[in-house]
C-alpha cells in the first residue's frame, strides 16, 4: 500500500479534487434523488424534505402497476414517442453524418470552410434551437412558405406544431443540431485509416462497396459505438427542444411531441409529486442502464484497445 | 463630485447605524420591473429608513424558487404569488397570517368577492395573502372592422349566438387593414401551445353553467365532463372548426396572438388590461400606438352564455414568509403597497387593474372609456378555487384541453370525442384531488 502510494501518490493528489467534485455535485445529489423516490414527498410534505414519510417501494409500485395513477397520464404515449424519436434521430444523424464525412473526406479546396459552416448548428444551444424552429414550423412560417409557395411540394400548408406531424417537428431540429458533431467525428476517424489498405484493395479489384464494407466500416465501428451511446443518451434524456417549442413548457406538446423527460417534468413539477417524480427518474435511469448494457454487449469487442 | 461623495458617506453612515432592509421577490410585472418597483417603494424607504431590496424572478422559475424558499426557510421577507398559487403555498404553512393588514386596508368590502377569495386557502378563516393587482380578460375589437361589416359591438357581445353571427359577418367582410392591406381574421386565440390554455376556455365553460371543479358533498371534484361544461367548451372550440378562429393561430402562444392583433391581422381577441396601456405607448417603447389597431381599439366584456356572463379573474398577491425576521416592517410595506396611492401608481406602471376597489373610482381610470369597460367587465370576474392542489388540476386540464385542440386542428372534434377527453381529464383530476 505504502509502495503504491509512493509510486502514484502525486497522481492521486491531482485527481482528488475531481473525485471530490464528482462526489459533491454528482453522486451526492444522485443518491439523494434515489432516496427521495422512497418518500411521500408532495406539496404538503415538501417542507420536511428528506424527513418526509418513508413509504418504501409504494411510489415505484404506483408508477408500474397502478393504471389509475395520475402520474401515468400520457405516459404510454411518451414512452412510444421517445423510443421512435431515439430511433429516428439516431438513424438520421448517423447516416447523414457518415455521408457528409465521406463527402468532405477528399481533397476539396474549401474543406475547412465547409466543415466550419456545417458545424455551426452544433454550437447553437438546444433551447435556442427549440425556440427558433418553433417559429419556423408555424403554419405561415418559413418552412411552409418554402415547401408550399416556393417549391410547391405540398398542396396546402400543414400544421407542424399540432397533431401527428409534431413528431417530424421535434425530430428534424434535433437531427439538424446533432449531425455536425457526428460528421466531424467520422471525418477524423476516416482520416486515420491508412491509405495503403485502400490502394491494396484497389489492386485486388475490390469494388467501392467492398472497400467500405471490409476496410472503412471496421475502422468506423468503435467510433460508431461511441456516437450511438451519446446519441441514445441524448435522445432518451431530450428535453430542451420540446420544452421550448411548445409554449415553453406551459402547454402540452401532444401525444406525438411529448417525450419521457417532458412528461416526467410535467407530472412532477406540474403535479407537485416529487416522491413519484424521483421514483420515475430512478426507473428511467435503470432503463437507460439496461440499454447501455445491451449497447456494451453489442460493441464491447470494438472498444478494446488494439 | 462633492454631492456624490456626500451621498456615499450618508449611505455608509446609514448602513453602519443599522438601516433595516426588506427583501422582496416580484415577477416581471412591467417594462422595467426592478426600477418600477423601486420607484414605487421609494417614499416608504424614506419614511421608514429602510432599504427594500427587490429581486425579479421570471415566471418560468418563480414557482421553483418560491417553493425552494418555503422548504428551506431561506428566502425573502415578502414574495409575489400568482393568485392561483396562494392555496398551495398557504397549505405548506409558511405564510404569515395577514388578517390585520387586510383589515387596515378596508377589509372584505374593499375588494371584489373574486379578489377576496384569493387571499387564503379555500375554506380557511385566515388570510395569508394581500391582493396586489388584478388581471382579467375582456374582448378587444377593431372598431373600423366592425363598422365596415355593419356590426354594432353592443349587439355582437350581447349573446353567444350574436357573437358567432358577428364573427360570421366579419369573415365575409371585405375590410382590409389600412396598413397591411390584408383582410382580418374574425377571432384570434391561442390553441394549446400557451400558458393560459385554461384561462381562455374557462369563461365559455362558466357561461354555459359548467365549472372546472366543484364541491360535491364536501369534496372537490372535476366538473369538466358535465353537460354544461361540455356545451361551453364545444361552442368555443367549434368556432375554430367553423373557420372563425384561424387555423394558424391554434399553434401560437398568447404573446404571438397579441402581436397579430397589434399588427392588424385580427378583428377580435381576448386579453388583459395591459393592452390599453400598450395602445398608448409608441412601438419604440414596446407599445403599438402608431398602428391602426391602437387607433381603432374597442373593448367589450365576454358575451353572456346561456347561464350568465363570466370572465377569468387572476392577478397577483403579496405574502410574508413566516421565517421573515422583519414581520412588523414587512406588514407595514404591505399596507403601503395596498394603499390607494400605491395601487394607482403600480397600475400605471404595469397596465394591470388595481386590486383595491376604491382605486377603480380614480379619475385616471374612470376617465379612460376603455378602462371603464374593463371595470364593468370585472363584475363578471370569476376566479378558480384557491385549492392546495390547484396546480395539479390546472396541469391535467391543460393537458386534456391540449388534446382537444389537437382534434380541432385536424377538424376531427366531435361532441362525443370531447366528452371522451373530458371524462379522461375528470378521472385524472379526481385522482389528483384525492
Automatic annotation (TrEMBL), chain A:
Subcellular location: Cell membrane
Predominant location category: membrane
Membrane topology classification: Multi-pass membrane protein
Superkingdom of origin organism: Bacteria
SUPFAM superfamilies: MetI-like
Signal peptide (from-to): none
Chain ranges of the ABC transmembrane type-1 domain: 79-295
Gene3D superfamilies: MetI-like
Keyword Transferase: no
Record field: transmembrane: 12-34, 84-104, 116-138, 158-176, 223-246, 271-296
Record-linked Pfam families: BPD_transp_1 (PF00528)
Keywords: Cell membrane, Membrane, Transmembrane, Transmembrane helix, Transport
Protein family (similarity comment): Belongs to the binding-protein-dependent transport system permease family.
Name of the molecule in the record: ABC transporter permease subunit
